[in-house]
Every structure is written in structure tokens, then in C-alpha cells.
Amino acid sequence: MKLGGPLDSKNAARLLSAAAILDFMFLGFVLATLEPVLRQELGLRNTGLALPVGLYLVLVLIYWLICEGFLSGHSLGRYAMRLNMRDKRGKLVSPMRRSTRAIKKIMSLGLTGMNPNAASRYDKAAEVSWYSPMAPRPLGFWQLVVLDGPDRGKSIEFRKVADLLSTHQIKIGRDPNWSDLALSRSEKTSGQHCVLRVEKKGALYIRDMGSSNGTWTGGRRVGPEKWVPLAADGRFRVGNARIAVLR
Amino acid sequence: MKLPFQVRDKLSLANDIFSFFGHIGAGIGALFAFLGVTSNLANSTSNVVFNVQVSSLSLPVRLTLLILIAAALGWGMGALVHKLSRSKNDSLSFAAYVIALLWGGLMVGAADWLAIAPRQQVLSETLLFTVAGTGLALWVAGFHFQSASTGGKRVLRIQCDALFLFSIGSALFMVLTLLGARA
Questions:
Q1: Residue B62 C-alpha, separation from nearest chain A C-alpha, in angstroms
Q2: CB neighbour burial string for B99-116, b if at least 16 within 10 angstroms, e if fewer
Q3: Would you state the torsion angle of the CA atoms of residues A237, B96, B64, B176, taken in this order, to the nearest 10 degrees?
Q4: Which of A1, A193, B50, B170 is the most exposed place for a label (fewest CB within 10 A)?
Q5: Beta-carbon contacts of residue A96 (< 8 Å; ≥ 6 apart)
Q6: What pLDDT, on a 0 to 100 scale, did the predictor assign at position A51?
Q7: pTM score, two decimals?
Q8: CB contact under 8 A, B134 and A22
């Protein structure tokens, strides 16, 4: 399963709530299957709501123990939502952190995890982050990928661009000595074609370097005189090659 | 006269939405026509049983049908929400939430349609089909929301909200369906 990037607390809470709903529905199915069998086997007749409610709580506890204890935080719902539990650095959560999280969860009976607007207290206490393919990855893992043209498939990861941290710029052109992403086979690309500026918060701007065949983003031509924000889809055209930013 | 890019972009989105609903309408029409023909044939031929009743199909066949429908619903919802979440028009973004809720209802409706009558069930098929269908639809919809072409925090928030509302809609309609079956 693709890891993706870290979700902010609100979006993570929404997706976790959606996953929890699916898990509760699954447990409802298990309850509906088990309850008549148990009722018959134990010879119980008029127990009212006591048996289904009690059985459901037991099922929730067992399911929670299996998911948190043996499946590293995975569950049916979280798998459907593609959620991964990681620490702040994107690594697997250590057993110590998982234990801390489990203890805090027991103490609050898991109730703080039912708020769809904020991260649960036990996730905060254990410094657990939720990763999803829906969320953009950290800036260093973003990629520039050539989508078509003679250089189709060429790509470069932001963290592999020399001097990106100091200049905040990625140079694109045909000249391999100047360019960070060299489109050496594309005849319609100028030697020094355009520059992409990467802001710390992930905002992207593009500027043409006076190329012959132009640079385009969002259906508009980018001029050499000022920086232009990159289109929302993260795509731009250099000569006859389309390039995308994969976040 | 050439319209501005923003207007053409919105017109293109509106056309896409209309054509999508047009395709759904055509599909439903074709299905009803097929069921109508088979039903008429069954009525007119007393000796030959020609009626297609979903509840008479075996469990693997119905599960296969459920997988196809859930995948189609998930894909359709993902595509629509993906498009609508990128719109700068707030009312179109709000439409993403309404669609997600309605899609939950459609999912439960499909599950209930494919499940055999509650009194004949050994397993609670309505629940099983709803859980399996909702999970699959959420998983498939996620393919449209992968960050490869995302457009910022607002888009991510709308997509997360839509998935949350889809699961709420699914749970809500499932409870109503089960209560309705007991009544």
C-alpha cells in the first residue's frame, strides 16, 4: 500500500472516523451472525437488548485488541481508507509508543478518538501521525516527471536537486550542464528554458528564461518578466513536453 | 468570440457532469428496459420461467454483481468529487458532499437489492453486502484522490469530508433499511 504523506489532525480525524464507521458496521454484521446462534446455544429467550449490547461491546474490545495489538493499527476500515499509522518521521511506530497509545486509549475508553474535528488525545500523547496517499508527501519527496515528448518518463526528486535548499529553484532546459532536469532529446526545448521556484510551504512558481517555444501553465503562456503561480493541477508545458509535479 | 479560460473551464466541467448523469440515466434506462422485457416475457409465457430474479441467484453470483456495482459507484463518486473539489465555486464543492451522501444511499440500495429476503437469511446479507460494498467503494474512490495531482489543502479537506459523508450516508441508510425490514 502506498504510504503517501502525513495528514493534518483534522483530515486524519475525518478519515479515521469514516474508517471507524466501517469497522462498527462490520462488527454489526458479526453481531447479527453470532447473536442468534448464541441465543439458541445458551437457551436464552427474552433477554431484551442486554445480550446484543453486551455482545457488541465484547466484540468491539476483541476487534480493538486484534487491530492495535497484532495488526500495527490496521483494521478493515483503515485499510479501505488507506490509512497508515506512523511516527512523526514517517517510520513504523515503535512498540513503546504503541503501548503508550494503548494505555491512553484505555484510560479514555477511546472516546476522544470519536471527535471528527481533531486528533485524539492518545494519538497526540504517543506522537502518532496518520499517513495517507491522499496527502502530499514531504517536499523533498516531490518529483518532476516528464509526461510526453522525446524525454517522456524522465524524472527528478526535489531532494536530489543540487542547491535547492539555498536557491529554492529547479532549472529545466536542454543544456545538461545548466539544467537540473535536462530534456536533452527534446528539440523544441531551449538550452536554458525555464525555472521552477519552490517555496518552503510548497507553493510553486514558474518563470520562462526567454525560450524560443515558450512555457505554458493553466492554458496561459508564462513570460520571462515575472514569476507565475503554477496551475492547481501542478502541470506545465515546456516546448512540446508536458511536465507534472507529483506531490 | 473566444470565451475566457475560466469560463470555458467551468463550461467543460458542467458538460462533464451533465454527460456523466446522462450516461447513468441511459444505463438505468437500459436496465429497466431489460427487466421490463423479461418480466413481460415471464407473464406471457406460463410454462417457461424466464423471469430474472436477483434473489434466486447464488451467493457467488450476487457477490460478483455487488463487487461490480460497488467498484462502479466508488469510481464514479471518486471522479465526481475529484472534479467538484477543484471547482472554485462553493456551491459545486457543496454538491460533492450531497453526492457523497447520496452515493452512500445508492450503495445500501444496491446491497439490499442483491440480498435475499431477511427471513430466509442465514447470514445477515444486507449488512455483509453493505460493509463489503462500502469498503470497496471507499478503496476504489481513493484512486482518484491520490496526491499525484492534488491542488492544495482545500481540495484535500473536501475529499476527506466527502469520504466521511459517504460512510455516514452508508451507515444511516443501512440502519433505516434494517429498521424498515423489521417493521
A1: 18
A2: bbbebbbbbbebbbebbb
A3: 170
A4: A1
A5: none
A6: 83
A7: 0.70
A8: yes
Comparing CB atoms, the residue among B124, B136, B145 nearest residue A134 is B145
Of B135, B129, B105, give the one whose Cα is nearest residue B55: B129
The Cα–Cα gap between A67 and A71 comes to 5
Q: Cβ of B170: how many Cβ atoms within 10 Å?
A: 30
**Location of C-alpha cell 467503494:** B137
Surface-to-core class of residue B6, CB atoms within 10 Å of its CB (0-12 exposed, 13-18 middle, 19+ buried): exposed
Measured CA to CA, the distance from residue B170 to residue B100 in angstroms comes to: 9
Taking 50 as the pLDDT cut, the residues of chain B under it are: 1, 50, 149
In this predicted model, what pLDDT tens digit does every residue of A174-192 receive, in sequence order?
999 999 999 988 888 999 9
- On whether the CB atoms of residues A2 and A82 are closer than 8 A, the answer is yes
CB contact under 8 A, B157 and A11: yes
Residue of A nearest to B157 (CA): A11
Q: Do B135 and A247 touch (CB under 8 A)?
A: no
Q: How many Å apart are CA B129 and CA B54, to the nearest integer?
A: 14
Residue in chain B lying closest to A36 (CA) = B122
C-alpha cell at A218: 493553466
Q: In b/e form, how buried is each residue of A175-187, taking b as 16+ CB within 10 angstroms?
A: eeeebbbbbeebe
Q: Is A244 on the interface with B (CB under 8 A)?
A: yes
Question: What pLDDT is attached to residue B166?
Answer: 94
Give which of B22, B23, B42, B45 is closest to B34, Cα–Cα.
Answer: B42
- Beta carbons of A135 and A14 less than 8 angstroms apart: no
Distance of CA B92 to the CA centre of its chain: 19
Numbered residues of chain B with Cβ closer than 8 Å to any chain A Cβ: 5, 9, 86, 123-124, 127-128, 130-131, 134-136, 138-139, 142, 145-153, 155-157, 159-161, 163-164, 166-168, 170-171, 174
Instruction: Answer whether B169's CB lies under 8 Å from B134's CB.
Output: no
